[in-house]
Design brief:
Belongs to the intradiol ring-cleavage dioxygenase family. By secondary structure, the chain is an alpha/beta fold. The protein is built from four helices and eleven strands. The strands form three sheets. It has a five-stranded mixed sheet. Strands 4-3-6-7 form a four-stranded antiparallel sheet, with no helix packed on it. Strands 8-9 form a two-stranded parallel sheet.
Length: 226
């Protein structure tokens, strides 16, 4: 596919003109758009943080006060292959939907760096502008529209999406990164060292004729990192 077509496809795929109606009627989370996706959500749109951020991976304290179950992390036209990640968050029993769970997600650019614009605050200075927040709906569903992250330059790890979770009234914890099973760096040695926090983060992706990558992950709220 010619590279010049990707910005157009990205913008078209993430148009959400009729998304709220689709979500209300139970549309599949693997449609080309994330229903009702808002974003991107750079640090300038985050809640002002009066206190010092507690850790380098944290992000819950910076979340906007009003959130839906979908978010868009990347502007249409951001360099990289469009990607939609969706699924459900379940309680520790692995069966009960977990509603109202805050997910904070951030990742690198196509070039493998955390890009900044210079106006970031809090952990946005570390995590860059490809980050955002959502809350799961009554069925525990979530959907994230973004781009495929690149590998860190000069390092061996796969492309990944960092994710933290916070149940209503609870502490923030982290789960295994989203990684992708078609990445040659997600090999047997890498899989063997995974902790499976929140369940397996190895996601199978499919790519449609529109150039969009799509994958699903079920997150289970157990064995979280703190």
């Amino acid at each position: 596919m010619p590279a010049r077509l990707l910005p157009f496809l990205f913008a078209a795929a993430f148009s959400a003109a009729s998304a709220p109606a689709a979500e209300a009627h139970g549309a599949s989370p693997l449609k080309p758009v994330c229903p009702g996706a808002q974003g991107p959500a750079p640090a300038t749109r985050a809640r002002p943080v009066a206190a010092r951020i507690e850790c380098e991976w944290c992000g819950a304290a910076e979340a906007p006060s009003r959130l839906g179950s979908s978010v868009r992390l990347a502007e249409p036209g951001e360099s990289g292959a469009p990607l939609v990640l969706s699924g459900r968050v379940l309680r520790a029993d692995g069966r009960t939907p977990a509603a109202g769970v805050l997910l904070y997600m951030y990742h690198t650019s196509q070039a493998g760096i955390y890009p900044t614009r210079g106006d970031e605050t809090g952990n946005g200075r570390r995590h860059g502008y490809l980050r955002g927040w959502l809350r799961t709906d009554a069925q525990g569903r979530y959907c994230v529209a973004t781009i495929r992250p690149g590998h860190y330059p000069g390092r061996d790890g796969p492309g990944h999406v960092h994710t933290t979770v916070q149940e209503p009234g609870g502490p923030e914890g982290y789960i295994d990164d989203f990684v992708f099973d078609d990445d040659p760096r997600v090999n047997a040695a890498y899989r063997a060292q995974r902790r499976n926090r929140g369940g397996s983060g190895v996601v199978h992706l499919t790519r449609g004729p529109d150039g969009m990558w799509r994958g699903e992950r079920t997150i289970v709220l157990r064995d979280l990192g703190r």
